[in-house]
Amino acid sequence: MELDTISPALGHYRATVLDGDLWTRSRLSPRDRSIVTVAALIARREGHELARQIERALDHGVTPGEISEMATHLAFYSGWGSGTLASTVASAVFAKRGFGSDRLPGATVDFLPIDEAFEAQRVATVDSTVVPTFQTLVDDTTAVLFRDLWLRPGLAPRDRSLTTMSALIAAGQFPQITYHLNKAMENGLTEEEAAEAISHLAFYAGWPNAMSSVPVAKAVFENRR
Question: Which residues of 14-36 are buried (b: 16+ CB within 10 A; e: fewer)?
């Protein structure tokens, strides 16, 4: 049943506030808004709305391969079920549009070069807070995430960071935002874009999650100035 039939007010807000205003604001490109939205919906396992937003993301220039890579990436940051649900939803959208497996990234790829200085800083931070009690977690974080997943070329580093940051905010994982917002800005996300992404997420992850991320983001911005 159509949204307007069940909740006319909700349909009105979608038409006027979201589609009529939020998605037209210039502080973040339509493509970036789609990445932020799809990441948030994957993290929150909101399959019905995800299908609609994957359609919109494709219209905004996000490729099937990039959407596939987002689902893979967020299986590690939002849980395996989030990644597999997103893959199932995306598969139906791709089939509808006639996209085949030739549009998707392979299981094995040639990795992007690693930023050794940033990686050394990450390792030092982890060593000071997690080692030695959780050594297997540390080892997997290094081997599977930062020397494998993060180096896959199917998502540009900036897009991968934007995906991660959006998913963390959507899931209320505020202690993790400091590192990943810094990484996103190292990868080219501007302060204005980061702030607008948080404002955008208020609509797709809820006002409490957006507002609770503000002090964390402000601290990052101030420390980088």
Answer: beeeeeeebbeeeebebebbbbb
